[in-house]
Design goal:
The protein is α/β, with parallel strands linked by helices. Helices cover about 35% and strands about 25% of the residues. It is built from six helices and eight strands, in the order E-H-E-H-E-H-E-H-E-H-E-E-H-E. It has an eight-stranded mixed β-sheet, with helices on both faces. The chain starts with a strand and ends with a strand.
Length: about 200
């Protein structure tokens, strides 16, 4: 049974779907949920699901990312996760941190990578006139949003879409995609998952 830790920054909707997916027949179990924001609403949701939580407020480490990451690692190392899932964790991690979890850290990103790494992905897709948008789960590497792709979910861009409407439809597919990728990855299968709205 693989041990999974999840890092979040906000409401944790993808984290909740991951927790819900780890049923009796799943090859993994959640052992810890952490956040860079002690007020993140997702922490209470994880606690309600019976998962241990922690928070390391990144604002207390302003200008000292290595110290912030060291504090994260204190909690993570005690939980001994086999897999680390980033689920709306809005902090860029250093290469040193990433190397600690090489080939076992997953992230979900709201675009069809390699298009639109970074922020404002939905507006960028609209501005470019794209016919499709979506989300990608990938392995985390030191280069931002550039690791090997483990799954993608596609949605059509509809007439009248704005960034919020598009983001809401993409999020529905994120909730389908991430659990499927985690299940496959935890069982040792890295064949990409492809789904469409």
């Amino acid at each position: 049974m693989k041990r999974v830790a999840i890092l979040i920054s906000g409401g944790g909707s993808n984290m909740v779907r991951l927790l819900e997916s780890m049923t009796d027949d799943h090859p993994a179990r959640a052992v810890l949920v952490g956040s860079n924001d002690p007020a993140a609403a997702g922490l209470a949701k994880a606690e309600a699901a019976g998962v241990a939580t922690f928070a390391v407020d990144h604002r207390a480490y302003r200008g000292d990312r290595p110290a912030f990451e060291s504090a994260l690692l204190e909690h993570l190392d005690r939980a001994e996760p086999d897999i680390l899932c980033l689920a709306g964790f809005m902090r860029i991690l250093t290469p040193e941190f990433v190397s600690r979890f090489q080939d076992r850290m997953l992230n979900i990103h709201p675009s069809l990578l390699p298009k639109y790494p970074g922020l404002h992905t939905h507006q960028r897709a609209l501005d470019a006139g794209d016919a499709q948008a979506g989300a990608t789960v990938h392995l985390v590497t030191p280069e931002l949003d550039a690791g090997p792709i483990l799954g993608q979910a596609r949605v059509p861009v509809l007439p009248g879409d704005d960034a919020d409407r598009l983001a809401a439809r993409v999020l529905v597919q994120e909730h389908r995609l991430y659990p499927q990728v985690l299940r496959r990855f935890a069982s040792g299968d890295r064949t990409p998952v492809l789904i469409a709205e």
